[in-house]
Specification:
This protein is an alpha/beta fold. It has 10 helices and 13 strands. The longest helix is centred in the middle third of the chain and has 26 residues. The chain starts with a strand and ends with a helix. The structure holds NADP nicotinamide-adenine-dinucleotide phosphate (NAP) and ligand F7E.
Length: 329
């Protein structure tokens, strides 16, 4: 019997890469999709299967992390062996504008899903494994390098909500003896990254500048440093966490950090342009509390999961720039 997985946040960057990975391993993949007035499944277009197709292995269900009844119903229908909780209001700056919604979807949403899983496991009498998408933002102001032993110091409503999700996951693991793993993932990017995150905002602007569609790029704080990896590598790590004998918590990171300024130089350098001629600082993109320096130590993931990132910083930037040049054309 092939395995079945349920992914919340399947329409997001990571959801699309994880779906590809699980389908390639023979899984049937169920995904939770929010109702939207326009199509929100474009990242899944290439693997989408029409509901009328016999034997399809990608099944989408309407649902929302703010709606427990719907979550319960989807779990009962999908009967997953593994649940990946990737759904979230994932934008740090937006979480300052919509803190309550962020807490509802990211913190209480995680609790809702865990609670549905707990009852489901009791009813069906077999194990279901759960991956919780934690974030390096949970470390916030803690000095680098950060690893599983670093104390959390969250600096945004998003980060606080992810810390809550992390602890709900630990508590459900200990209280009900469930297989639950927390990933603590540092920033991971790709050509499918949302257009308002800084890397994609930059590479998208480069494509548009080269095509004559834009001549300025408005950005906020250029001094923050991030440990940027490739999303395709990170979803492999999520899957590996659920294939272990024992559940655990794992940092996933490249161990290299660069500032936004350095990202700009690398990305504009790919097309022989000087970023200083295009970038304008706009304070609207500053955050009330910033996270200055994230640099991960993924020793545990390397040793226990055999996981290492395969895409370097330079290759990642080149991949994103090339994609966005084509897109703009
Ligand atoms: P993303 O591209 O922003 O995708 C987020 C997904 O969550 C989308 O499918 C979105 O649906 C869905 N979603 C939002 N609110 C929801 C709700 N109330 N109910 C159900 N689904 C909801 O994020 P990502 O980069 O793929 O990240 C995946 C997960 O990892 C997130 O939990 C994020 O916080 C976490 N994370 C990301 C990174 C990173 O660097 N990418 C690092 C650490 C942790 P729509 O498509 O309809 O908006
Ligand atoms: O910001 C600075 C900004 O929004 C990175 C999410 O996936 O990774 C992501 O969160 C840095 C910050 O990502 C702009 O101030 C400057 O210091 O790309 P970002 P993030 O906040 O690190 C973590 C791990 C997650 O878990 C999150 O879900 O770039 N910055 N100028 C800017 N950032 C944005 N977005 N836009 C700017 O114009």
């Amino acid at each position: 019997m092939s395995k079945s997985a349920l992914i919340t946040g399947i329409t997001g960057q990571d959801g699309s890469y994880l779906s590809e990975l699980l389908l390639s391993k023979g899984y049937t993949v169920h995904g939770l999709v929010r109702r939207s007035s326009s199509f929100n499944t474009s990242r899944l277009d290439h693997i989408y299967a029409d509901p009328h197709e016999a034997g399809r292995r990608l099944v989408l269900h309407y649902g929302d992390l703010t709606d427990s009844t719907g979550l319960r119903r989807v779990i009962e229908k999908a009967r997953p062996d593994e649940i990946y909780n990737l759904g979230a209001q994932s934008h740090v700056k937006v979480s300052f504008e919509n803190p309550e919604y962020t807490a509802d979807a990211d913190a209480t949403g995680t609790l809702r899903l865990l609670d549905c899983m707990r009852d489901h496991v009791e009813h069906i009498g077999r194990e279901v494994r759960f991956y919780q998408a934690g974030s390096s933002e949970m470390f916030g102001a803690a000095p680098p390098p950060q690893n599983e032993k670093t104390a959390f110091y969250p600096r945004s409503p998003y980060a606080v909500s992810k810390v809550a999700g992390y602890w709900y996951a630990v508590n459900y693991r200990e209280a009900y003896n469930l297989f639950i793993a927390n990933g603590i993932l540092f920033n991971h990017e790709s050509p499918r990254r949302g257009e308002t995150f800084v890397t994609r905002k930059i590479t998208r602007a480069i494509g548009r500048i080269k095509s004559g569609l834009q001549d300025k790029l408005f950005l906020g704080n250029l001094e923050a440093k991030r440990d940027w990896g490739f999303a395709g590598d990170y979803v492999e790590g999520m899957w590996r966490m659920l294939q272990q004998n024992e559940p655990g918590d794992f940092v996933m990171a490249t161990g290299e950090a660069y500032s936004i300024r350095e990202f700009l130089a690398e990305a504009f350098g790919c097309v022989d342009l000087d970023w200083r001629k295009y970038v304008v600082i706009d304070p609207r993109y500053f955050r009330p509390t910033e996270v200055d320096f994230l640099l991960g130590d993924a020793t545990k993931a390397r040793k226990t999961l055999g996981w290492t990132p395969t895409v370097s910083f330079r290759r990642l930037v080149r991949m994103m720039v090339d994609h966005d040049l084509q897109l703009a054309e």
